[in-house]
Amino acid sequence: MRRALLIAGVLATVGLVALLLAVEVFADHRRRFTGELPRALPTVVAGWVRRDVPVAVGSAAAANVQGILNYSQVAQAVYAKDGLQILVYVAYWEPGKVSVVDAGSHNPDSCWVNNGCVRTDRRYAVSARLGERALLPYEAGAYLVPRGGLQHVAFWHLVNGEPNRYEAQEQGWRDGLFEIHFPKRFTRWMKLMQVLPYAWYFPLVARMTRPRR
């Protein structure tokens, strides 16, 4: 019986490794964005004036922000019209740069609230249209900023083109589930790989998450 279990375990491990190698060979790990973020933001919007804004003032502050967020690219601009201002902030992480959890943690619910802002409203996975085009569901909230008044925020956090589901994550934390299982296409493989010895596990993880150019 013990020998049969051992053989079954070895066969299961070999099969899992074969599947992981197949994923590594045939999966598409190419960068999804190869341009420059500042150029991706619209330069001219009828009736609006664009002004580029640095994420941080000074080289030391910029290096500090880069060290915390560890993004690949970032861009920020203000669009102004008739006393109304809209700040657009975009950050991009190349595949394998940081984990989905780390990137997703940099949002107003954590960064703003933990720095003294008060959340007064929150909506999840909001549907909207822009003309005839249906937008991907976005996150929305209102935050009372010290010395800045009430700020309305709408944001997307996309992982492989799919919106990150903050409502499901928040419910999970409330229920004591200290794990974010998203995107499932990736995390299912990570769960399966946990049965492997560390000598195999860590090299495979490094190989699966490294960016390809």
Task: Characterise this structure.
3% of the residues are buried. The protein is built from eight helices and ten strands. The strands form four sheets. It has a three-stranded antiparallel β-sheet, with no helix packed on it. The radius of gyration is 22 Å and the shape is elongated. It has helices at 2-26, 37-40, 59-69, 100-104, 108-112, 166-174, 184-193, 198-209; strands spanning 49-52, 73-81, 84-92, 118-126, 129-130, 133-134, 138-145, 149-155, 158-159, 162-163. With 213 residues, the chain is of the alpha+beta class. The longest helix is centred in the first third of the chain and has 25 residues, at 2-26. The chain has a domain at 33-94.
Attribute tags:
38% helix, three-stranded antiparallel sheet, alpha+beta, elongated, 213 residues, single chain, 8 helices
The percent range for strand residues is 25-35%
Radius of gyration: 22 Å
Low-confidence stretches: 173-178
Classify the secondary structure makeup into a structural class: alpha+beta
Instruction: Tell me, briefly, the overall form.
Output: elongated
Ends: how far apart?
49 Å
Number of strands: 10
- What strand order characterises the main sheet? 1-2-3
